[in-house]
Amino acid sequence: MNQFSHETGLNWKALVLIVLLSGQRNSGYLRMIKMSETRLLTKTEFIRGLDCVRRAWLDLHRPDLKAPLSLASRDRMETGKLIGELARARYSGGHMASNSGSSHDIAVADTLEKLQAGHRCLFEATFVASGRLARLDVLHQVDSGEWTLDEVKSSSVKEPKKIAEDKVLDLAFQFQTTRDAGHPVKHARLVLVDTSFVWDGGAFNPHALLGVVDLTDVCEESAARITDHSTRLSAVLASDSEPDVELNTHCKDCDYFDHCHADSPKHDLIFLPRITAKAVNDLRAKGYRSITDIPEDEKLTDARKRMRDVVVSGEPYIGDGLKSALEAIPFPAAFIDYESSNPAFPMYPGTRPYQQICFQWSAHLLALPDSEPSHHEFLPEGSEDPRPGFCQSLWETIKDCESIVHYTHFEKTQLKLMVADGIPYAQELLDAIEARSVDLEKIVSEHVYLEGFKGRTSIKVVLPTLVPSMSYKDLLIADGTAAAAGFRKMLSPNTTSQEAAELRRALLDYCCQDTLAMVEIYLALKRLARSE
């Protein structure tokens, strides 16, 4: 098949000749340079295969099924690229091992040539061994003469035992492949963002913004796992047959979910509220495949039993307490929503990497339960810290309201952080919300369940179920992560004025939709309460 062929006309014999002509006869390096005729397993495929072999197979064989890159995904990729570029400034005398975009055959040969020439620090050094391909972020030789492999990640520095497993195995894959290729790498480290760094407004110092965690021991302990999983995954990827993997809870947010779920029950057990993979497996072990299979006397949480009853009966659940919960909301009421950004590179002096910065709010005010809502909003246009203007303008808008309606507790959490940072009017807002708070999501989750919720109570699911005429599908920005990415892109000097204006309009439309959605959900709940 075409995807298993070489990317270049160079064959391994020609590359071995390069090695021999250069005088390097170490058998390990010969193993590194000898390319097999089968496809090489990459680090990205290895990590995706750890999570799900079916996803790794689909990435390779059915990329047509994958959704286009979202604004948030592009933002994450750009952040990773910038962090990688900054990290290189930590290493003096570093050189690219090969030209960007080189085939792996050429990259391996170039890497070997530079190592033989005495280079002590290489970026994108490339090694091949045991059917695996590794392109290293940094390979450098310390003063003692020992070689160290550093992989740069945009995630934050944590205790070694708390670093996500996929990051550790990502590093272990690189480390093991390099060793198997015959290069005597001694240490393996992750270079991560240090969230204790406080930006002073100047140029970013790579030694201050980035920290290092040595994971050599963990990588050495993972050698057998790397080998075993690589062998099994390579066989799966080489097959023309899509692997059969049973769905579980981690599948719900996958790009391929609709494809994989096509042959599964409509009311799959994975849709049960807040269910774990273990709990799903326990129910399957009892012979249940669908929520409709679960008998009435099966022990379930209240939320799961409620969903089971609705799915089986086809009738919505409207709790007895819904009407009183809604009547307890005093007016005038403000329905509010925030948007925040937590960039790896701080945007404002005095802030830290990945610190949440609230930059936008929307509010719909209702003087009376059935009155027309008035809309108010805030989104900064300049590059100054938006939090002072955010808090002052929101306080002036909602200070006279008897209730402050929000969806989940995100708003309160962010205000506490701004109080800690001394942002003016944050304390007044926090006091008001703590005294007058109404969590609309809590009302929904405690008193209402419709089949369309599919086990969730997020506003993106509840809105089109309760108010079919409204949804987020036609919005340019349709979720919080996209809003954060859009805000950063709007302020970027590389963004044209026209694109910035379009992003600003999209941000305002999205945040306005969130608070209008809350008003419409509130009105829909009132109609449901009256129908009981």
Structural summary, described in words:
The chain is α/β, with parallel strands linked by helices. It folds into three domains: 236 residues, Lambda Exonuclease, Chain A (Alpha-Beta Complex); 48 residues; 210 residues, 2-Layer Sandwich (Nucleotidyltransferase, domain 5), CATH 3.30.420.10. Helices cover 45% and strands 15% of the residues. Helix 3 crosses helix 7. The longest helix is centred in the last third of the chain and has 35 residues. The termini are far apart. The N terminus is likely disordered.
Can you lay out the helices and strands and say which pair or pack?
Elements: H1 12-21, H2 27-33, H3 43-51, H4 53-61, H5 71-88, E1 95-96, H6 104-116, E2 121-129, E3 132-141, E4 147-156, H7 165-180, E5 185-193, H8 206-209, E6 210-214, H9 216-221, H10 223-238, H11 257-261, H12 277-285, H13 302-313, E7 317-318, H14 322-327, E8 333-341, E9 357-366, E10 374-378, H15 387-398, E11 403-406, H16 410-420, H17 426-436, E12 437-439, H18 440-447, E13 448-449, H19 459-466, H20 480-491, H21 497-531
Parallel strand pairs: 1-2, 4-5, 8-11, 11-12
Antiparallel strand pairs: 2-3, 3-4, 5-6, 7-13, 8-9, 9-10
- Tally of helical segments: 21
Instruction: Give the total of beta strands.
Output: 13
CATH architectural type of the largest domain: Alpha-Beta Complex
Unreliable spans: 1-37
Helical proportion? 40-55%
Which percent range describes the beta-strand content? Answer: 15-25%
First and last CA, distance: 62 Å
State the CATH class of the largest domain. Answer: Alpha Beta
Computed Rg = 27 Å
Shape: globular
CATH topology of the largest domain: Lambda Exonuclease, Chain A
Spatial arrangement of strands, main beta sheet: 1-2-3-4-5-6
